[in-house]
Amino acid sequence: MIQSNDNRIFQIVAHVVLALFSFLAIFPFILLIISSITEENTLAIYGYTIFPKQLSGEAYAYLFKEGNQIVHAYGVTIMITIIGTFAGLIIMSMLAYPLSRRDLPGRKGFTFFVFFTMLFNGGLVPTYLLYTNYLNIKNTYWALLIPILLVSAWYVLLMRTYFATNVPTPVIESAQIDGAGEFRIYWQIIIPMSRPIIATVALFVGIAYWNDWYNGMIFITKPQYYSIQNLLTRMMNDIQFLQNNSSLSAALAGTAAIPSISVRMAIAVTGVLPIMIIYPFVQNNFVKGIAVGAVKG
Question: What is the DSSP string of 215-272?
Fold first, then answer.
């Protein structure tokens, strides 16, 4: 009875502590969303609060005043994220699978070659010259797709470890005895048995594509190719430029009504909200994939 009471008390305390940490993790997002719909002067005078004195949708009205531009940028980002995530998973899993096979000739050498790419890269200038002068991806959708699509060594090694430790060798040997080729083993055995790590890497790669603004900043100058992050970044830079140049009297007259503080919150909400909506659906596989995929090196 004493043990049972102690266990119950421990569970209550553990749940309270976990609930507190969960609230601390969620609170900044709640404050962010509320601040984005707070009236500009109220936000400037009273600061950030959960219970603002006056609400306003001016920040979102400013962002969506050219609705087609936002919608188009969202469409570009969604398209690039879906295509890039799917293609990246195929490429990285097809590289990780043979590296997970102990009977692969030169396995250690190939693994070291993949790992070596984590330590060194070509640098910004050579990369820019390669993409623009030889691949000609400037001001194309390829500029948002190809740089991230190139294989990430960390994800390859993560998937390799999962394949090696969680797909039993007898299963592969049985498939070989039954006449299955390597591609069939990969597609019909390895992939279905590796859903947690596939979901984990898909989430990482998808977030990388969704949040990518760097490649757009370097390779994209035409608005029709802007992703949502590039568009929001440029809108924020335009607001800061107009507000910081007091000599532009005409511009200042037009920017007096711009909700500069709350619009920053609205930009953050617009960029992060889709990821917050999707994450709970892949959370279980994400946690399992990370825990199991990192057991061995």
Answer: HHHHH--SGGG--HHHHHHHHHHHHHHHHH-TT-HHHHHHHTT--HHHHHHHHHHHHH
Which residue pairs from 65-72 have beta carbons closer than 8 angstroms and sit at least 24 positions apart in sequence? 69/223, 69/226, 69/231, 70/228, 70/231, 70/270, 72/224, 72/226
Amino acid identity for residue 97 in this structure: Y
Q: Where are the domains of the chain?
A: 60-293
pLDDT tens track for 27-58: 888 888 888 888 878 877 877 888 888 888 88
Which phi-psi region, left, alpha or beta, contains residue 47 (left: φ > 0; alpha: ψ -120 to 50)? left
Instruction: Give the amino acid at 14.
Output: A
Report yes or no: 111 and 154 within 8 Å, Cβ to Cβ: no
Compute the distance between CA of residue 162 and CA of residue 107 in angstroms, rounded to an integer: 16
- Domain 60-293 in CATH 3.90.950.10: no
Note whether 230 and 217 are within 8 A (CB).
yes
pTM, 2 dp: 0.78
Question: pLDDT tens, 124-159?
Answer: 888 888 888 888 899 999 999 888 876 688 889 889
Computed from CA positions of residues 210, 200, 159, 116, in that sequence, does the dihedral angle turn out positive or negative?
positive
Dist CA 229 CA 239 (whole Å):
15
For tokens 């590796």, the residue is 194
